[in-house]
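ugh finaly. both done.
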Amino acid sequence: MSTIAFENGDTVNVSLSADTLPLFEEGGEFAGLGQIVCYPDTVSTTILPNMSSDSIMSDINMRLAVYNALDGEAFADALGRDLWYPVSTDAANSIADFDSSYVIPGTYQGAANVEAAKSYLQAAGYNNQKLKIMYEGNKDKEVIAQIINAYLDAAGIQSEIVAWDHDLIRAHASNTNEWDIF
């Protein structure tokens, strides 16, 4: 699978489909404004912290506690290794300005480290506040939210899962009081 992108030196739009390609060909509305490129698709899922002052996740120690509580290998096992695999680098080749020098094997923290998580919790001054895990209500993301919830619980981090339908998720994501992890 590949991601189809439009690049013009300043902008990269990765929301293109095969149906929109004729707009960029000779005679099309956007012909000559840039180039169409394809990148391998990582089909990755990103866990985003709410870094606004409304969330405890704005504290770097809390973010590190959460990240150390999670385990990429376990995610891949739980979701099925035929379609999912653990991330092993901080950069993916689907990023428009990807450079292979970004990939430094062995530097990505992807295994759970509960003791480190607990140490970061203490540094964050965590006092059992319940983190809200928000996700777009589909089955794959529900399973991911449940896995996150279980790993956070094992590290002593209280959390709850909040699901929103596709049409409402962006409105709720823009309200920084409604979520801590997305």
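ok and the 2nd:
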Amino acid sequence: MKISILIYLYLIYPIYSIWFISHASIIHDNLSIVGNLDGMRVYFIIWALLCELALGIGFHKCIHKSIHKKYLIPMLSISSFMFLTSILLPYLPEEYPILSELHIVLSFVGLLSMLFIASMMIISLKMTYHIYPYDYYMILMYGCSLGIYGANYMSVNSLVEVFLGILLPIYLYHLGDRLK
């Protein structure tokens, strides 16, 4: 079972994500734009489900060991719902401006809340298990620096989305292994 999870986290999900974002500019576009290109809608929904599965694997490994699991599990469910709902809404600002704005709000709030949940969980695990997650802070700082670079283009770019989407589940999965 562990081998199949590692194959999924290290090969299947990252390769699919990289293939998916290769259909547009990794720096200038975000995944919402890629997902609404001609013929890419189904692949966008598949990518979102793969992303949720990867995040679910990573969070499942750690969240039950957190002293705040009573609060974090419902928050994670709401965040996942927001993320998946945003994927189902089209991002076509010219044709559907209100739905596009709702798509942006749900995806942005869903991502921020997921990062907040991960941070709160890691802080509580740090207090309980006396771990020092410097590597998590490095991932966040690197992701934020990519985001600042992408902000020059007034968009959270695909590079940031894929970077955090691939590394966060892998990090949480291995963090769960360290908490024994």
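summary for the 2nd one i guess: Helices lie at 2-21, 31-35, 41-63, 69-88, 97-129, 134-151, 158-178.
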